[in-house]
Design a protein that fits this description.
The protein contains five helices and seven strands, in the order E-E-E-H-H-E-E-H-E-H-E-H. By secondary structure, it is α/β, with parallel strands linked by helices. The chain has one domain: Leucine Aminopeptidase, subunit E, domain 1, CATH 3.40.220. The chain has a seven-stranded mixed sheet, with helices on both faces. A hairpin with a 7-residue loop joins strand 4 and strand 5.
């Protein structure tokens, strides 16, 4: 499923984010940029050691923010490392921090002159953010950003499971209706 906002295509699909040929893929990183499990581990394994070398030079990234490195051996030229929040109960600024991780990733891509970006579902794995709530934050942030994007023309949500894909598609349909 896809929508177009201000000339920017926003779409969802089920795929392996490490195989995306967008200008950038987003890594659901930890604040130490130390690699890990899930999407983070997959991106580092597929992209090779050059990504970790750049992460070590950067050092760290606070929750709700993002940093950019080269893409190593990935098809994508860049990896944007976004740090989402650990979900506690929804009352500790989790939505604000998650929106920040998406927004700061989009800003980095746009400032770098990139035309396309692929996101995983940030914070919904080991960090425990409920997918339904996270999808609403992700899609709303993407739609709002698209209204003023300068260079970015494709925002893709790349989901791991059919269930997550359906959840993101429902969020995208709701965003269109608003």
């Amino acid at each position: 499923m896809k929508i177009i906002v201000n000339g920017v295509t926003i779409e969802c699909r089920r795929a392996d984010i490490t195989l995306e040929d967008t200008d950038a893929v987003v890594n659901a990183a930890n604040s130490r940029l130390a690699g890990g499990g899930g999407v983070d581990g997959d991106i580092h394994r597929a992209g090779g050691p050059a990504i970790m070398e750049e992460c070590r030079k950067i050092g760290s990234c606070p929750t709700g923010r993002a940093v950019i490195t080269g893409g190593g051996r990935l098809k994508a030229r860049y990896v944007i490392h976004a740090v989402g929040p650990v979900y506690r109960d929804g009352a500790h600024k989790e939505a604000e921090l998650l929106a920040g991780a998406y927004l700061n990733s989009l800003k980095l891509a746009d400032e770098k002159g990139l035309a396309s970006i692929a996101f995983p579902s940030i914070s919904t794995g080991a960090y425990g953010y409920p997918v339904a709530e996270a999808s609403e934050v992700a899609v709303k942030t993407a739609v709002e950003f698209a209204k003023s994007a300068a260079k970015l023309r494709l925002i893709r949500f790349v989901l791991f499971s059919d269930s997550d894909l359906k959840t993101y598609e429902r969020a995208l349909k709701r965003a269109v209706a608003e």
